[in-house]
Specification:
Layout: E1 2-6, H1 10-17, E2 24-26, H2 29-35, H3 39-49, E3 54-57, H4 63-76, E4 81-86, H5 89-100, E5 105-110, H6 113-121, E6 126-129, H7 131-136, H8 141-155, E7 161-164, H9 170-179, E8 183-186, H10 188-194, H11 198-216
Parallel strand pairs: 1-2, 1-8, 2-3, 3-4, 4-5, 5-6, 6-7, 7-8
The structure holds erythose-4-phosphate.
């Protein structure tokens, strides 16, 4: 599974990048706003730290404008940047054109199997179902991942990766992986929880104190 950080904060990307397991980063206008930094500078810095894909989202709403914006971003930003496009009729048309021109697209704001299917049909490289936001309105985010995954198997869809997004818990990541999502984009606070376990901490404390004892006995 590709592990992607859902953040536009450089320090967070640097921190997780040091673990050696980070594949990419997703950003969106809200995350850019939260970062308090310039959009393009931020994307460039992230693209230096992380191999990619780094998702940069368009902010236009018509197909022609999205195509123009996507082409422009792709031409000016580093090679590992891909274009994120919202799941609307115009977004599908833009995805079809951009993917046809060899530009990888991540279709975002996906909340149903139909939207995922249409995005794959339009040529998306990634489709991003938003788990947490579905859970927030009393629907089953992980259930959507399961259904999309079943459709992908039934239809033999191979060129479009399911990117579990709007992740709110470790369980979201673990179950998405079990259900066949090929990627997950994870906020920093959840990413840091993925590595934590109290038995790891207490086990390590015990190994260290026993090793100190071995040394004090002159056996190391
Ligand atoms: C995905 O690419 C989005 O940036 C993200 O996962 C949105 O999640 P949120 O619901 O936490 O804002």
């Amino acid at each position: 599974m590709e592990l992607i950080l859902d953040s536009a904060i450089i320090e967070e990307v640097e921190d997780i990048s040091k673990w050696g397991v980070l594949d990419g980063v997703t950003t969106n206008p809200s995350l850019i706003r939260k970062s308090g930094r310039d959009f393009e500078d931020t994307i460039r810095k992230i693209a230096e730290i992380c191999p990619g894909p780094i998702s940069a989202e368009v902010t236009s709403l018509t197909a022609n404008e999205m195509i123009e914006e996507g082409m422009d971003l792709k031409s000016r930003l580093p090679k590992n940047v891909i274009i994120k496009i919202p799941c609307t009729p115009d977004g599908l048309a833009a995805t079809k054109t951009l993917s046809g021109r060899g530009i990888p697209v991540n279709v975002t704001l996906v909340f149903s199997v139909s939207q995922a299917l249409l995005s794959a049909k339009a040529g998306a490289a990634y489709v991003s179902p938003f788990l947490g936001r579905l859970d927030d309105i009393g629907q089953d985010g992980l259930g959507l991942i399961e259904e999309i995954s079943q459709v992908w198997s039934a239809q033999g869809i191979k060129n479009c990766k399911i990117l579990a997004a709007s992740i709110r818990s470790r369980r979201h990541v673990e179950v998405s992986a079990r259900l066949g999502a090929q990627a997950a984009t994870i906020p920093y606070n959840i990413f840091t929880k993925l590595i934590q376990h109290e038995l790891t901490d207490s086990g390590l404390d015990k190994f260290m104190s026993d090793w100190e004892a071995v040394k004090s006995e002159g056996r190391a």
